Amino acid sequence: MIRGRGFHVRRAVATALALAIACSPLPAQLPSLGDAYELTPSAERRIGERIARELYRDPDYIDDPVLGEYIQSLWQPLLAAARVRGELTPDMEQRYAWRVLLGRDRSINAFALPGGWLGLHLGLLAVTTSRDELASVLAHELSHVTQRHIARIMSQDKRQTPWMIGAVILGALAASKSPDAGAALIAGGQAAAVQGQLNFSRDMEREADRIGLGVLTQAGFEGQGFVTMFEKLQQSSRLNDNGAFPYLRTHPLTLERIVDMRARQPLGERPAPQRPDLEHALMAARARALSTGGVELHQALVREADAIPADATPQRRAAALYAGALAALQLREPARARSYQEQLAARVAPDRVGARLARLLSAEVALASGDAPRALADIGTPQTRTETLLMAQAAVRAGRADDAVQRLQTWVTVNPTDGTAWQLLATAQAALGQTLRAIRSEAEARVAWLDYPAAMDRLRAAQELARKGTVDHIEASIIDTRARAVEVLLREQALER
Predict the structure, then answer these.
(1) How does residue 253 score in pLDDT terms, banded at 50, 70 and 90?
(2) Is residue 344's pLDDT more than 60?
(3) Handedness of CA 453, 457, 462, 468 (dihedral sign)
(4) FRET pair for 252, CA 20 to 30 Å: which of 18, 189, 352, 355?
(5) Could you give all domains of the chain from N- to C-terminal order, each with its CATH number?
């Protein structure tokens, strides 16, 4: 698992377009779909990037390649379906980010931001029991973006600049983790007034449900996922209304919405029984193990792995062992983690996807145990981002940094916005004594995380190093070109203030 750089503010975003997006009175008049929006897609994306910068910096932000790969296996079909249905226009697809950021928070929450950024708490993933349920949440949030609900809300008050609205969202996000800090950020006549207007109306929620359901089924998922997710959230919040369900504050579940989703299921069809899904069970278990909770959570997961009920389903047994292994790693008990992993591998061997996840878990355990050669053997030839990043870590530790550099350079050429890959590349280059290249890779990682001032600092350090002695002149030229590009981004960022 690989951590990124930030997500408590995410809890803020959730409550930005959460407190700030769902809990106050209805907006006066909802523009029709044909109305022109004064906020352009480019401006909307810049607002989203301003908020995403804070999410990347938050300690709760996590870039876990295994979970990220699974989320993308749901997200990409949803995007394709929205494209086929005409919800996702070519202009919107090109200008918006369309990225899902993960946060460790155990609370049940997901949220959309301006410009195609989505946030998902591991707590929400952990409570879902099927990929259809998780996909229904992503489809709903995707539809908020494609229908430009956020832009409509922002356009209602023509007195406010987009950047003031962005500041208000950040203030509301900060308020979710520190009410005093949030109040300080949003205090002031106009800002306080705008905050009350950043709320999805019931009409917008119904529209996101309706369009989201169409996108969900077009993508090949079961529409029943919407119904079971709604029912699960409603029932759980009734039994445990302790603030752990911010998603229900940002997207209040009315009986009308639930009935509407039930009514939209195909006539005459009885709900299909939920199909056993080993991959989803393991991913929900991984989300539990990697979410916030500390030692107590990890100890509880280990106890669960040690005492699996005799009547547990195969999926539940596998999930308990998978979560137990990850928890044992967090508790620095690699031998126990290896025991759970081996039991898991034996149970899931007939399942191709399960066997792969068990093998990747074996590589993680080997890395934590300091056995880099075994990790490399488990990984084999990298085929996906998950294996590429794990292989890079293992190769550096095994004294084969040159292999890591070769793989990662190929990867970032095709995926230049992968900040984690750039950071690992910097580590591998530094291990080979390629200092100038390592500094540039660090700068590229900061660009990918939207931290342009930090990127500029690294590029200037690289330029200074290049001036001091014999260097790779091609690399020095690349650094100068990138420095000019980042200067442009910094100037654009300065205009937002």
Answers:
(1) confident
(2) yes
(3) positive
(4) 189
(5) 2-263 (no CATH), 276-369 (1.25.40)
pLDDT value of position 332: 96
Q: Convert the pLDDT of each residue in 319-328 to its tens digit.
A: 999 999 999 9
More confident residue, 61 or 43: 61
Q: Enter the tokens of residue 315.
A: 């999926």
Q: Are 46 and 162 in contact (CB under 8 A)?
A: yes
Quick check: 329 and 368 in contact, CB under 8 A?
yes
Map the chain to HEC letters. Answer: CEECCCCHHHHHHHHHCCHHHHCCCCCCCCCCCCCCCCCCHHHHHHHHHHHHHHHHHCCCEEECHHHHHHHHHHHHHHHHHHHHCCCCCHHHHHHCCCEEEEECCCCCCEEEECCCEEEEEHHHHHHCCCHHHHHHHHHHHHHHHHCCHHHHHHHCCCCCCHHHHHHHHHHHHHHHHCHHHHHHHHCCHHHHHHHCCCCCCHHHHHHHHHHHHHHHHHCCCCCHHHHHHHHHHHHHHHHCCCCCCHHHHHCCCCHHHHHHHHHCCCCCCCCCCCCCCHHHHHHHHHHHHHCCCHHHHHHHHHHHHHCCCCCCCHHHHHHHHHHHHHHHHHCCCHHHHHHHHHHHHHHHCCCHHHHHHHHHHHHHHHHHHCCHHHHHHHHCCCCCHHHHHHHHHHHHHCCCHHHHHHHHHHHHHHCCCCHHHHHHHHHHHHHCCCHHHHHHHHHHHHHHCCCHHHHHHHHHHHHHHHHHCCCCHHHHHHHHHHHHHHHHHHHHHHHCC
CA-angle at 433, arms to 431 and 434, nearest 5°: 105
Within 8 A by CB and 6+ apart from 1, the residues are 62, 64, 65, 66, 290, 326, 364
Task: State the Cα–Cα distance between residues 86 and 80, nearest whole angstrom.
Answer: 10
Backbone angles phi, psi at 321, to 5 degrees: -65, -40
- 3 pLDDT band, cuts 50/70/90, is very low
Average of pLDDT values for 252-274?
Answer: 72
Beta-carbon contacts of residue 235 (< 8 Å; ≥ 6 apart):
none
Please check the confidence at residue 25 and state whether its pLDDT lies above 70. no
pLDDT of residue 291: 95
Distance CA 83, CA 88 (A): 5
- pLDDT above 70: percentage of residues in the chain: 78
Position 184 pLDDT exceeds 80: no
pLDDT value at residue 166: 60
| Mean pLDDT over each residue of the chain, to the nearest integer | 84
Q: Report how far apart, in Å, the C-alpha atoms of 171 and of each of 110, 144, 179, 189, 243 are.
A: 18, 21, 10, 14, 20
Residue 409, classified by CB atoms within 10 Å of its CB into exposed (0-12), middle (13-18) or buried (19+), is: middle
Residue 140 to residue 316: CA distance in whole angstroms? 28
